[in-house]
Amino acid sequence: MSDQPPPQPGASRFTPQNKTTHERLSTDTFGLVALSDFRKRRAEVLEQQEREAREAAFAARTNKSTPDRSLAATPSNVSADSSEAERPKKKKTKRTKALVLSFDEEEDEAGPNLSVGRDVGKKKKARHGENNGAGDNGEAAAGAELVSSDDKDRDKGDKSKAKVVANTSVGIVPRALTKAALRREAEEREALRKEFLLLQAAIKATEIAIPFVFYDGTNIPGGIVRVKKGDFVWLFLDKSRKVGAQLGVGADKSSNARRDWARVSVDDLMLVRGTMIIPHHYEFYFFIINKTVGPGNKLLFNYSAEAPPKESGAAGIGRAPDLSQLEGASDDPTLTKVVDRRWYQRNKHLYPANLWQEFDPEKDYSKEIRRDPGGNAFFFSR
């Protein structure tokens, strides 16, 4: 008889070498290692744990009918069982070595991701084994925390190297504002400005004809005045005053009509276009280029806003066009009235002077309803 006590039912004769992931990493790692090496070793440990778990499950399925060998004094058939367990182990090991593992830089909640170059299912198994290792007292998560700061720095570096994709929805790509481009744009603006000034000067230099009448309660024929589109209104009134002196307008009322016209200044005369009193300081070009509309939605000065065509050859040099051929020569003379301001002040309460109003550039006359001084709307348009 031996003095050695019999083995207890709950104790095993052979102590199993089940170590956690952290213990195995601590055993295989010495000193400071690189992040790639640490991840490689950790993946190997996780794969080894998964392989041992599969082998243990396989051995348990094959030995369901046999008793527990750990409770016996001398385990039998250990070599046979181990040989049977080694066969699938070798096959799986060869298949695993044939695959190429690549490790991503991103981390999940339980640790770094594992990606297989050719087998997607291997990646899922590695993640499953990683989660199992993380369940052993949270030691796998602690190992991931050791390199979390390095992973963040690496992630930032990868994001900075990301390829910038152009936005295809943008229709026009702005040009680079280099010094040469800015200089070229400035030259183009200057060329356009000079071209506009030349066009404007050509329009202002174009001559037009304005037929008119003198008005003192009745229409007195005055003739036609030749002016340019860029002339001021006071210049037209000065020319009309000279025409009135030559024609002797008002001779039936005064024996010295020419002397009276010589005493009249431009400030004593008014230009009435339709029912609008045009101030002296306006150019005809202002109304032509802006197409200013008066009462009744009619243009105050209906003249062309384009430059005349250039005449080629020496035929058009130094020769002024005939007055009857100018634009506006066939207009109604009664549309333009030259009125003595003193007469207007005496009769502005009488018709038609009570309908005249001074031009206001801020006012819209196209929708205006004409009314008398009492506020009553007129039922005719004229």
UniProtKB/TrEMBL annotation:
Every copy of the FAM50A/XAP5 C-terminal domain together lies at 206-369
Single GO biological process annotation from the record? chromatin organization
Q: Where is the composition biased (Polar residues)?
A: 73-82
Give the CC-aspect GO terms: nucleus
Task: Tell me which Pfam families the record gives.
Answer: XAP5
Which InterPro entries does the record associate with it? FAM50A/XAP5_C (IPR048337), XAP5 (IPR007005)
Cite the record's Basic and acidic residues compositional bias ranges: 149-161
Task: Return the Basic residues bias intervals.
Answer: 88-97
For region Disordered, the annotated ranges are 1-29, 47-162, 312-331
Report biased composition (Low complexity) as residue ranges: 131-145
- What PANTHER family does the record tag this protein with? PROTEIN FAM50A, XAP-5 PROTEIN-RELATED
Record protein name field: XAP5, circadian clock regulator-domain-containing protein
Which organism is the protein's source? Chaetomium strumarium
